[in-house]
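[agent] plan:
  1. take the single chain provided in the ticket
  2. run structure prediction with default settings
  3. attach structure tokens to the ticket
  4. add a short note for the reviewer (M.T.)
[agent] executing step 1
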Amino acid sequence: MYDFSKQKAMLEVTLELLKENNLLDISSLGGGTALAGYYWNHRYSTDIDIFIYGNENKTHLLKPSNWSENIKSKMNSMGFTGNFRHNDIYTEIVIDKDSKIQFFDVVKKSKEPFCKVNIWNKDIQIDTIEEIIAKKIYYRGDIGNSRDLFDIAIAIHEDPVIFSKMILKKEKIIALHNTLVNISNSEELKELYLHEIKQMNPNIKYDFLAKNTVTYLKNLLENICASYNINYELLDDEYILIENEIYSNI
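[agent] step 2 finished; step 3 output follows
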């Protein structure tokens, strides 16, 4: 349904760059492109997000000044013109106005952060769904990006016990719930969400959830946060029961 040929080319040169710097074994493809290109095919995604797991920061090794001639040639052929950013958190290579390659030094946010798969004819390590969703909640749960909310909603609907697989403090879940309450209480923000989702051209399989993500997540997280308020830890069966009830009553 979606053309990921550009992302495939970006991934190929990214893997070569990681290999040249001996980072391939501790690196994993994650983010929206992993969800869309491998797991769900639910929407279009443009960026290649690579997460480097370890005890030391490694992204500085990936600066253009350290690239081999082979990497320079391939990056330039894709459109790279020198637009590059680096700080203590990430390294970003901007291919064009719509696409970029990002490298992050991270620690795992789930019990099983990555696995080995074949995507676009490449055997690589890819973040598990729970790891991707945990990162979205941890880093951006208080922002409420439309694509993140949509991704989180699908993940919970497909696997209601995902919360027991993530390593997140309750405060992060509460922050996400507060974000959804704010969106739900604002007609402007709700319209903005629907506008941005429409631009993503979501797969018809997920159309209902795409349109109802804000209500679905707000109501579901309200129940989970209520359990926090009474210091009660939900069982897996209870997560499933809550999700079924919330989804069927949208």
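[agent] step 4 note for reviewer: The first strand starts at residue 27 and ends at 30.
[agent] ticket updated
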